[in-house]
């Protein structure tokens, strides 16, 4: 590629909304262009990176035996109604109607459609196992799209789905994907950790995330430096005894003041170890008479935010007065008179007070009990999206230094960016959609499934969080937009420079090196600044004086200074 034929559009300043370094640098390097909240054009320089990410992922998925397919971005609602997710999923699922008033969704993930394919195609156990994957556009109407490609609304995901005849085989498929993920992330040269994860709204009981270690990550990872224990804080455990709880009524009165509470304040005031992304709390207090009998229980639903992926919330009083079932947060809001529309994830909108007189169980994602004397919390609902990183850091259900659950020493906590997620799903979707094959006993049997995602467009952003300096991006070779840049000085004035540059360019191209020749005629300072910002890992500068002695200057993007190298050797060094 010659720079004069390409689109290079670097910026001195980052846009005001770019809070983290990857967003700033990708914008300044001309890799992405914002169209709207969480919606970006991938500019030519950025697209080259994304295509390299895709190529590596595709290669390793194929190597692992997965088969590529492409499913529709716009999906009729029928399959989503079969699994119930059309109604159950929160507002992240973008729904719309066509001209005939038929319901559609834009795929945020594709379990329904792939299960529909499987039930038509895989008729016999002899066709199993199978793994179908796509690298495709997804849309999630994220409550807080931010950080550029890190949390977009439209983004590219690799999503794979395995179909097996039984549980053992499904777990082997899970392991195959897990191994492939390790190879993939090793090839990107990233520092990452595989951690136990919550299976959230998708369900299933075996689930791990791949987290790129970065201070700006939205997730907190708990790990034991002496063993392989590592878990997302949502799922983390420790051997630490539960701490004392403050007096209930006082704490509740404080947090019951609308507007005064953030997640942090809730945690502080209750003295509670809370995980980072609290959507709601169900708190309960008991009033006890002199005989020690519970005479009244108050249940407080603290609705911190409104984008639940909720199945069903049941506030259930065992003996009598209150018995509510809610299918959505909206219903809870209606029932208890909360204002619709929340101020934002950190503002406690309005606590809801329910008064019942004995045991209370809040089911589904929310679990709570209230039959002990003191105020306590039995369950906290942890969400997906999150509050401010600065606040999040201290919202923990496990604290650094707590004893690891495997007894191997104190736990440490670091922050991470979720770039991949592997899930064992079991028969959740195959049962809901009655997707069966004929087993070797001749009986129709539900597929055992797994699903496996990689954030293709999140990955470059995560790579930048780990690889940058004050001048710009430092790409790992595997995903650099170009691996080598040739910077001739005074190409228009010196025939020697022009010829050497053109020849070196042709030689490298012939060897398959992904090289760009900067023939724009920029001044050296501006030219170097551009390539340092863009982050091409290898740079060769060709100048008249050096060439007269047969020398060029080589500099890796991480090197402090350039090294003179004989022109004759430079091809061998770069190939
Ligand atoms: P997060 O916790 O960050 O919201 P998720 O758990 O909702 O992610 P999954 O459903 O597990 O995401 O999707 C698989 C992968 O897709 C994630 O591991 C992540 O890398 C990527 N991904 C998810 N949401 C986004 C997004 N809004 N923008 C870019 N990539 C995303
Ligand atoms: Mg997640
Ligand atoms: Mg999410
Ligand atoms: Mg996930």
TrEMBL record:
Q: Where in the cell is it found?
A: Cytoplasm
What InterPro entries does the annotation carry? Answer: aa-tRNA-synt_IIb, aa-tRNA-synth_II, aa-tRNA-synth_II/BPL/LPL, Anticodon-bd, Anticodon-bd_dom_sf, Pro-tRNA-ligase_IIa, Pro-tRNA-synth_IIa_bac-type, Pro-tRNA-Synthase_IIa_type1
UniProt-listed CDD domains: ProRS-INS, ProRS_anticodon_short, ProRS_core_prok
A molecular function GO annotation: ATP binding
Q: Which Pfam families match?
A: HGTP_anticodon, tRNA-synt_2b, tRNA_edit
- What Gene3D superfamilies is this protein classified in? Anticodon-binding domain, Bira Bifunctional Protein, Domain 2, YbaK/aminoacyl-tRNA synthetase-associated domain
Q: List the GO cellular component terms.
A: cytosol
For this protein, the record's SUPFAM superfamilies field holds:
Class II aaRS ABD-related, Class II aaRS and biotin synthetases, YbaK/ProRS associated domain
Q: Which GO terms describe its biological process?
A: prolyl-tRNA aminoacylation
* Functional note: Catalyzes the attachment of proline to tRNA(Pro) in a two-step reaction: proline is first activated by ATP to form Pro-AMP and then transferred to the acceptor end of tRNA(Pro). As ProRS can inadvertently accommodate and process non-cognate amino acids such as alanine and cysteine, to avoid such errors it has two additional distinct editing activities against alanine. One activity is designated as 'pretransfer' editing and involves the tRNA(Pro)-independent hydrolysis of activated Ala-AMP.
State how it assembles. Answer: Homodimer.
Question: What's the protein called, per UniProt?
Answer: Proline--tRNA ligase
Mind giving the lineage of the organism this protein is from?
Answer: Bacteria, Pseudomonadati, Pseudomonadota, Betaproteobacteria, Burkholderiales
